[in-house]
Amino acid sequence: MIASPEIVTITWDADPIAADIEAFDDWMVPSSFWKTMMAEWGVGPGTHPKSWRIATPPPAVLDDADLRKMLNDAFAAGTIPSPNGSRIYTVYPPDGTTVTSFGSEGCKTFQAYHSSFATSSGLAVYAIAPRCDGGKTYGMTPIDFVTWGQSHEIMEASSDPDASHPTWLILQQTPETPELGENADLCTGNPMRVEGHMVTRNWSNVAAAKGDPPCVPAPANAVFGAFPEKNEISLAPGASATMKVHLYTSGTPFKVTAYPAVPDLTVKQDKSSGADGDVITLTITASKSYAEIEGQNIILLFSSSQDYSTRRAIIVHAK
Length: 319
Description:
By secondary structure, the protein is of the alpha+beta class. It has helices at 18-28, 32-38, 64-77, 142-159, 205-210, and strands spanning 6-12, 47-54, 61-63, 87-91, 98-101, 104-105, 113-119, 122-128, 170-173, 178-181, 191-194, 197-200, 202-203, 215-216, 224-228, 232-235, 240-249, 254-260, 265-269, 273-274, 279-286, 298-304, 309-318. The protein starts with 5 loop residues before the first strand and ends with a strand.
């Protein structure tokens, strides 16, 4: 783990939200939110000593190998400080840049990721957050979408910086399925707004042991969510199926968004919000070329208020 992270922000001059991104990185690691989330993992408050805006046009594609070369070149040129055991380089490609990593494409198989590589001055730890569609699919603004993803990666990069030797893998047993992941992975799909910033929550073994909500900080507002009548369905290529989703809340109506994770699935919903006891009907359609891709054929079901959201997944098998 990194006891006191130093964030180095990397953006592009052409990015209209570069200043907002820098403000987020400036806020996050010294914040009271950070102290609440990370103390259990041996990570203390951090600093944000440096930002670098790249003047050249952003690339159409930024692969992980290209990113590592870009960082190495910047270290050699003195453009950004070299690794020192505490630095995390947060990279924010603007809208229009496709991020790829080890054969996977950002926004299709990952929202963001963190990794590391060895340099002559130590381990270079970095986190990168693609812009995807600017968050429109998730009903978010571009800055909210990118800080939601990058807060997740900064937490994990701080508690588990060496990608070649992960140390904080935890087993979370849920009624649906056991899930293995890092501390923020176990709270994926639980964004909330803190002091004006959209962030993810973080897993707490202490809270879980007490029987409290394990994703902290626990939301102070109403409990709400959307439950599909089935967790899994099967579709033949070109076929459609309907599914009812049941809503519950102890407070006011909330928004529900169904989002297919692969392009060969589409989903329509008869309404986009509801209150306690309401039902939303989804119509899920597979393309004529539909085929099953292990772990990726899912419909994500987001329930969201102004401050945070929850997520469930419907698995769609190919007949």
